């Protein structure tokens, strides 16, 4: 069982610097899936590469339950702290 709650993990990650971009994209995707659900907006255009990568990461979580996304987020955050 994770030692942090989802909210605690999210707060700690907001305060953490120096995390690789790929890890941040994964955390973003898990956070959005946990709090919003499946991606609900259009894919950003190529003029917005960062937003596009974040969208792509979120899209890969399609169908994952909110509870599972929260669990995965906490596991990922704990592995980075």
UniProtKB/TrEMBL annotation:
Q: Which intervals of the chain are annotated as region Disordered?
A: 1-20
Gene3D superfamilies from the xrefs? 1.20.80.10
Q: Which PANTHER family match?
A: ACYL-COA BINDING PROTEIN 1, ISOFORM A, ACYL-COA-BINDING PROTEIN, ACBP
What would you give as a GO molecular function for this chain, any one?
fatty-acyl-CoA binding
Which residue range or ranges hold the ACB domain?
1-81
Protein name (Swiss-Prot/TrEMBL): ACB domain-containing protein
Family of the protein in this entry: Belongs to the ACBP family.
Q: Which InterPro entries match?
A: Acyl-CoA-binding_protein (IPR000582), Acyl-CoA-binding_sf (IPR035984), FERM/acyl-CoA-bd_prot_sf (IPR014352)
BP terms from Gene Ontology:
fatty acid metabolic process
* The species this protein was found in: Hymenolepis diminuta
Q: Which residues form a coiled coil?
A: none
What keywords are assigned to this protein? Lipid-binding
Query: Where does this protein have compositionally biased stretches of type Basic and acidic residues?
Result: 9-20
């Amino acid at each position: 069982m994770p030692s942090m709650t989802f909210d605690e993990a999210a707060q700690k990650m907001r305060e953490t610097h120096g995390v690789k971009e790929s890890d941040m994209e994964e955390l973003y995707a898990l956070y959005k899936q946990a709090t919003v659900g499946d991606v609900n907006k259009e894919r950003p255009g190529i003029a917005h590469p960062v937003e596009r990568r974040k969208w792509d990461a979120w899209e890969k979580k399609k169908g994952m339950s909110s509870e599972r996304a929260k669990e995965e987020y906490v596991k990922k955050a704990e592995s980075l702290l």
